[in-house]
Write a structure and sequence with these properties.
heterodimer; A: mainly alpha; B: alpha/beta; Alpha-Beta Plaits; Rossmann fold; four-stranded parallel β-sheet; about 25% helix; globular
Chain lengths: ~250, ~1000
């Protein structure tokens, strides 16, 4: 009924159409998947700030800059003033800090590029996780090793649920890792001590800090928090019910 | 479609005349669906569709990552502010001369929600719509941003200098420089006015509110020797007789009154007592809607009614008036000191003095001559003098500070205004008056300014700014006045003096006390000091005001010598024919906040009309005027939306007719506050200006009117037939009420008559279910709404709107039934059309256990939580609207358009950051304020508790309710308030026979009448 040429044409055309379709599907599918698209997002920041230097080498607490994370849903980005607390005396002339100094003088804020962003219809609360003694690194990765900060986890709903359903396998737990603050609450007494936040973590004495740090790369399989620090299992500790309105409202 | 007027008289509730005419039909969203209303106003053409499809495909391919966003921290750390953590500050919301304490929630330094301050004696933690909605006025994009002289924008300083020159000229020429101000209750403002007048005698202050109402002060001066407005405390009365007064409705004091009135409205079997509210009135006010016994009274009968009430003769009274007055009089006599007569403050001084004499004779406990709102009987004479001076050319410069006479004043006053050469306006908006002024200066909102206010009982509260003025450096009215006087007289308060300094300088207490007073919002809480003790400067120039709180300094120096004329004591001649009655609008009041979408879209408490003022007439009047062919329901509704011209001695306006049942015949009622023409985009084209036909100064509210029918119709956006519950054409009762006698006798059977025979025992018995039951192991959230104490004030709707980011949709969308309020107040009438009683039934998501919406959602966007919440997940919703169709309570709202994302900047700053801003195409509904539940839960966890204690989680509607009619809590906690309330004998669940098992229990309304079957409404 049809010519041979037509038959070939249909076959080749069909194959081409299928291939193009597959490519379009792949581009869209992987394009919109946050775990593919967002993990490793590492934009250029206006100030070449190194977490590796500050959190890693200098062992400055996360909460020294991200103050308020233990009480607020947000993890606040430090004000220019926080930078200048140290940088009036340290590296006061550094050309890399010019923008910070200018901001402090002019009163115009620094516009950092946002890396971790959840959609508007998701309500994530940092303080609940910090107070449950979840390490910052569980979600943000080995920040103390990042010269330029990047997104480490996909922050998808599936990723949230994986952890909530099986926290023991995934949470690093309440122990110090490379000087990163681990979720332990500062006591009022600590905070009254003006040197507290400047002191290397190694010299602070809390039982949760006595645990040996696992090597980088092994932290996913390390002992879960609740088992080492005597904290009840997250489910028992009052993990919110796994229901839509826990996050969506 | 049976004619329901048959059972309109059998005691079953009905919603509207339309319902009587056509049966239980929804004219809103669901009727629109039958007509397949398009989603878009502009239809999409094939070309635009293709363009959109290709563009969106291109975007999808390019969308490998979301767009870059910025994080912008502050430069300096602010000690108390943690991003994401709310702070609450106490302040005071002065609704003109009535002060209410507020707590303002601030997020990252911007106010996002206003609620009542528990410590404040006037509102005791409750809110009013005006208070809540004033937040939106703060972020109003139509506010003036720059000062203006003639047509050119100038700096603030430039404008002030210009006015100062005019004042200096006035000084030199011996003419007057007048500042026109609104009534207020601020002792510091009073003192400032006195100080300014002392420094520059040429300047005088004239108080001219939109609704002047000297009558109440005249009457109180005569009866009690108090030059102010004495406020009765309704909680101290067992029998309340309101004569053409609307204390629960369109009144500055309605919040104060509702808090107190509701206290005695919840009888139980053990304590079957409640107050009895008699209402005699011409309009159908919200107070009338709450009446136990209501009589329709033509305005010309008011004084006759009061005459009989005070034991006088019944001369001039109709038999109906006489009978009603005698019943009320008997009840008052029986109550003795526990009775009170409340006369409308607009009534003639004679009428109000008659009411006062009854209260005096009975020694009414509700009336105390020391509970006074600042007011003055000399306002009108000062205004009249000013008018003469303006006409004679004696006023060199006129400054209107936060008042709008070009909108609200009489024709004669406006003509006089035109004679003043130099005029300046200080206001939030470029309103009608500012447009006529050569100089216009923007003013700060009350949330941006310092101040103080005194409450009726003398409690002083401080007003502190929550935010720096949004429009750079714009000071408050008082700051502008200080700057102005500083320019004229250099030694006044000093070059850099501000009103904040002035208020603080008047403080004689310690600094610690000041801080404590700021924190609490109430000075009395510092230690029961009298008003004069703490803010000492109150006493210096205002010694005459001590007896009545404050405020006498508001009166003009040139008129204080004048006494109130004896002529004003004569009874107002109210014509007996067709009378126009102009009343303040329920939510807009005098139209000051007319540019506020929240208030415009808030349905009137009785008529449920939004975005309009109308001519309300009784059914019989509609027939008499030839607007309706007959008195049948189907004939009556033909009168609606016809346009009539109402002409009085003062002018004429066109109004659409709306038939309101229960009104007196030969009366037309219309609302003030509409028909603004300048001052923003929201108020454009909304209603007609009833000030144009009202008596000047609003001293007399009734004027003879002529009616002329016009061709054409004007669409009215009323929500009363939207979202109608299916009552099976009257076969099932949705809103239930019982009489006080039923409560006394323990006869609650009528509340459960919807169950089939074997379940007559009561709703508490569960019908069988074929699906597994939910077990609520932790919390089980529930609500109890007491319809007996609910007055229909609508605070809950406003509070919900502010808390949950509910959009304003506009009149066109409301007419399509697309209003978005998550909670609505269904208003049902009981009885015939002549004078029915009213039941108000707040309706919100019932969070059903067997929720019909959950079953039908194809994408599981609405689900059941382990704590009994019916959850709505916006990001899952694809907009099928099955859930809404299947909801028996019709409480789901669909975003037909992008109502919220198309707001004009900076209105988005009013959003609550804890609640998602919904977009087009998703369903939404009440969440029981789940964000507040989370907050309470977090707090409990921090305290080491697994459960939220009773009273820690409070919904926005519950928080705002002045009547305490809403109880929310954990029904699983046997000791909680809600568990107790759910056991109340008056409890019933709406449409319980459907076995959807709602989490909301309603407590039936109790009418203080003898029996169930007759309503006693004449």
């Amino acid at each position: 009924m049809f010519s041979r040429r037509f038959d070939i044409g249909v076959k080749v055309g069909g194959a081409l159409l299928g291939a193009v379709g597959a490519i379009i599907f792949a581009v869209i599918y992987f394009g919109v998947r946050n775990d593919v698209a967002d993990v490793g997002y590492r934009p250029v920041q206006p100030v070449p700030f190194s977490h590796k230097l500050h959190a890693g080498d200098m062992q400055i607490h996360c909460q020294y800059c991200h103050a308020g994370v233990e009480s607020s849903a947000h993890s606040p980005v430090p004000t220019t003033q926080t930078c200048m607390n140290c940088h009036t005396v340290i590296k006061g002339e550094s050309p890399q800090l010019k923008l910070v100094r200018d901001s402090y003088e002019s009163g115009m804020p620094i516009e950092w590029v946002r890396i971790h962003k959840l959609p508007d219809y998701v309500h994530f609360n940092h303080s609940r996780h910090i107070r449950a003694q979840i390490d910052c690194k569980s979600c943000h990765g080995p920040v103390e090793k990042m010269g330029v900060i990047s997104q480490f986890k996909p922050l998808t709903m599936g990723w949230c649920l994986d952890c909530h359903r099986n926290p023991a396998d995934r949470i690093i737990g309440a122990r110090p890792i490379s000087g990163i603050f681990t979720g332990r609450m500062h006591s009022m007494k600590d905070l009254m001590d003006s040197n507290y936040l400047y002191r290397p973590i190694a010299t602070q004495t809390t039982e949760s800090f006595a645990i040996t740090e696992p090597a980088y790369g092994q932290w996913e399989t390390a002992l879960p928090a609740h088992e080492v620090a005597g904290i009840p299992h997250p489910k028992k500790a009052g993990l919110g019910p796994e229901t839509c309105s826990t996050c969506h409202y | 479609m049976s004619d329901r007027s048959v059972h309109a008289s059998d005691g079953s509730p009905w919603k509207s005349i339309e319902q009587l005419a056509h049966g239980s039909q929804d004219t809103g969203e669901f009727a629109q669906e039958a007509e397949m209303a398009p989603l878009h106003e502009n239809s999409v053409t094939r070309r635009s569709f293709m363009a959109l499809v290709s563009a969106s495909m291109a975007l999808t391919a390019a969308a490998c990552r979301r767009p870059e966003t910025k994080l912008v921290p502050t430069v300096k750390s602010v000690q108390t502010v943690t991003p994401g953590m709310p702070l609450e500050y106490a302040s005071v919301f002065a609704n003109r001369n009535v002060a209410y304490g507020v707590l303002v929630k601030s997020r990252e330094g911007r106010p996002v929600h206003i609620k009542g301050n528990n410590l404040h004696p006037s509102n005791r933690g409750a809110s009013s719509p005006e208070m809540i909605a004033s937040l939106l006025s703060l972020y109003d994009p139509d506010r003036i941003r720059r000062a203006r002289v003639n047509r050119g924008q100038v700096s603030f300083d430039g404008a002030v200098t210009k006015i100062a020159e005019h004042i200096a000229e006035a000084q030199a020429s011996g003419k007057r420089a007048v500042v026109l101000v609104d009534e207020h209750c601020s002792p510091s403002y009073s003192a400032l006015q006195t100080a300014i007048t002392a420094a520059i005698p040429a300047i005088s202050f004239v108080t001219m509110p939109a609704i002047v109402n000297d009558n109440v002060a005249i009457a109180n001066q005569q009866s009690y020797g108090v030059n102010g407005e004495i406020v009765p405390d309704l909680s101290k009365a067992k029998v309340i007789v309101c004569v053409d007064a609307d204390p629960l409705g369109a009144d500055k004091l309605s919040l104060y009154h509702t808090v107190r009135f509701a206290q005695s409205r919840t009888p139980s079997k053990d304590n079957p007592t409640m107050s009895k509210l008699f209402v005699a009135e011409a309009q159908y006010s919200l107070t009338g809607a709450n009446a136990d016994e209501r009589v329709r009274l033509h305005p010309s009968q008011i004084e006759a009614f009061l005459g009989i009430l005070s034991g006088g003769s019944s001369a001039g009274a109709t038999t109906e008036t006489t009978a009603a007055a005698q019943r009320a009089s008997a009840a008052l006599k029986a109550a003795g000191a526990e009775g009170v007569v409340v006369a409308g403050r607009h009534l003639s001084p004679r009428a109000q003095m008659m009411a006062a004499s009854i209260n005096k004779a009975s020694g009414s406990a509700a009336v105390s001559a020391s509970n006074v709102v600042p007011n003055s009987h000399e306002k009108w004479s000062a205004i009249a003098t000013l008018q003469e001076d303006m006409l004679a050319g004696n006023v060199h410069v006129l400054i209107t500070a936060d008042v709008n006479p070009e909108y609200s004043a009489s024709r004669e006053f406006k003509a006089a205004l035109a004679k003043v050469k130099n005029r300046a306006a200080i206001n939030l908006h470029e309103d009608e008056t500012a447009r006529q002024c050569g100089i216009s200066i923007p003013a700060a909102h009350w949330l941006e300014s310092w101040g103080d206010a005194v409450t009726m009982d003398g409690t002083l509260s401080l007003q502190q700014p929550l935010i720096a003025p949004l429009n750079d450096g714009i000071p408050s009215v008082q700051d502008t006045l200080i700057a102005l006087v500083n320019k004229v007289s250099a030694g006044f308060l000093g070059e850099t003096a501000t009103y904040a300094d002035y208020v603080k300088s008047r403080w004689t207490g310690s600094k610690a006390d000041w801080t404590l007073a700021l924190q609490n919002g109430v000075v009395a809480s510092v230690g029961a000091q009298p008003l004069t003790g703490t803010v000492a400067a109150q006493s210096n120039s205002t010694s005459t005001t001590q007896s009545n709180g404050t405020g006498a300094a508001q009166t003009n120096a040139t008129t204080t010598a004048q006494t109130n004329g004896a002529g004003s004591m004569a009874s107002a001649a109210i014509p007996s024919g067709m009378v126009l009655m102009t009343v303040p609008a329920h939510h807009l009041y005098d139209g000051r906040q007319a540019n506020n979408g929240w208030l415009q879209e808030l349905p009137d408490g009785v008529t449920k009309i939004t975005w309009d003022n109308v001519a309300l007439i009784s059914p019989k009047t509609a027939v008499d005027l030839g607007l309706a062919p007959g008195l049948g329901a189907k004939e009556i509704i033909k009168a609606n939306e016809q346009i009539i011209t109402v002409t009085t001695a003062h002018g004429g306006i066109d109004l659409p007719v709306y038939v309101q049942v229960g009104m007196a015949d030969n009366v037309i009622v219309t609302q003030l506050g509409y028909g603004r023409t300048q001052g923003g985009k929201v108020l454009q084209g909304v209603g007609s200006n009833a000030f144009n036909v009202a008596a000047p100064g609003h001293a007399v509210q009734y004027v003879a009117a002529k009616i002329e029918k016009q061709a054409g119709r004007h669409k009215i956006a009323t929500t009363q037939n939207h979202h109608t519950l299916d009552d099976g054409n009257g076969q099932r009762t949705v809103a239930r009420w019982i009489s006080l006698d039923d409560v006394k006798d323990g006869n609650f059977k009528s509340l459960t008559d919807h169950f089939p025979g074997n379940l007559q025992e009561g709703y508490k018995q569960k019908p069988l279910s074929i699906t597994p039951e939910y077990t609520y192991k932790g919390h089980r959230w529930g609500m109890v709404i007491d319809m007996s104490s609910c007055t229909g004030c609508s605070s809950c709707i406003s509070a919900c709107q502010s808390e949950n980011n509910i959009p304003v949709v506009g009149k066109d969308q409301v007419m399509k039934g697309r209003e978005m309020h998550w909670i609505r107040l269904d208003r049902y009438y009981v009885g015939d059309m002549t004078n029915p009683a009213t039941i108000v039934e707040p309706m919100l998501c019932q969070h059903c256990e067997n929720a019909p919406c959950e079953n039908v959602c194809p994408v599981a966007a609405t689900t059941h939580s382990p704590e009994g919440l019916n959850e709505m997940t916006y990001n899952r919703c694809v907009g099928t609207r099955y859930c809404s169709n299947n909801c028996p309570y019709k409480v789901r709202r669909f975003n037909f358009l992008n109502y919220n994302t198309e707001t004009r900047s900076p209105l988005e700053l009013a959003f609550n950051p804890d609640v998602t801003v919904r977009m087009r195409g998703v369903m939404e509904k009440c969440t029981f304020c789940v964000q507040r539940l989370h907050e309470a839960k977090w707090k409990a966890r921090d305290d080491g508790r697994q459960r939220i204690n009773d009273g820690e989680a409070i919904t926005a509607c519950q928080e705002a309710c002045p009547a305490g009619a809403i109880i929310f809590g954990d029904a699983n906690d046997p000791k909680s308030k809600i568990s107790e309330a759910k056991q109340n004998d008056r409890g019933f669940r709406v449409l319980a026979e459907l076995n959807v098992r709602p989490a909301v229990t309603y407590l039936a309304k109790v009418q203080n009448t003898a029996s169930h079957t007759t309503t006693n409404h004449s």
